[in-house]
Specification:
285 residues, mainly alpha, two-stranded antiparallel sheet, 11 helices
Amino acid sequence: MSRSFDPFRVLTDAERERHLDRYLAYLGERDGSIDLAGRQLTRREAWFDALADKPVEWLGDVDLDGFYQHYRDTGAPEIDARTTWLIATAKANLGESYGVDIELSRFFRKPDAAAGADPLYLHLMLQEFYHTRILSMLCRTCGVEPERRLPTRFQRAMIHLMMYLPDRVRWVPILAGEVLGSEVFKMLRQGVRLFDEQPEVAARLDMLLSEISTDEICHVAYLRAKIGRIGVRVARHLLPIIAWSVMRDVPELHRLGWTRKTVLDHLRAGIDIPDGIDWIRPDAA
């Protein structure tokens, strides 16, 4: 039986404290210790090493020209559903990756900045850093060499604006973004069926996206507990705007059959809690 939680339910003070304590314990088990200088989490590195020892690669045709033209916005040739899905997946983390690079560089400019930082916050930043590596591995599994590119000008402007806002303010749009991200990665996992003719590849793609999806869902629960009543309610009202922005910047999602309305409708039913996570308690949407 599936379990879900309402990302915008206002928690009591006791619930908020319990969530944050349990999340920190969960992260220690899932990620291991933080190596900020190396931008590493010890158990994540072991996870990557295990995957590298057992490489998996798609053996079918790959429309490289179509992929790179759409991904770089240099052309719009006709492409198949697999290529469309791969472009949407490659673009899914551009904004967060850009923001995390800026935020992590702040810690390296001020070596003592990490000393007083919230360990939950550092874990979140490093997890987002790993998401870029995971999506690069996903691209290589599909026969595409990943490229770093900047998000759109609008995304960059919003990210730089948020960097100058006080924490209690900037976490609000970030919560809305993480809520949307939880649904986007759920949809992308559904698209893995396009590779079902090679079950080993489909299983690898699903596992990679599952890793990101689990992080995103936990980020939602963490931020819901962190920002409090007013911030949660404002984030709820920001969600449609964030959804509009993402669907505009990643039109491949629409070409795969997903619309802003379907995304928001699904989120009204709540966010599914991954198996093995008991610190997020189910509740009514």
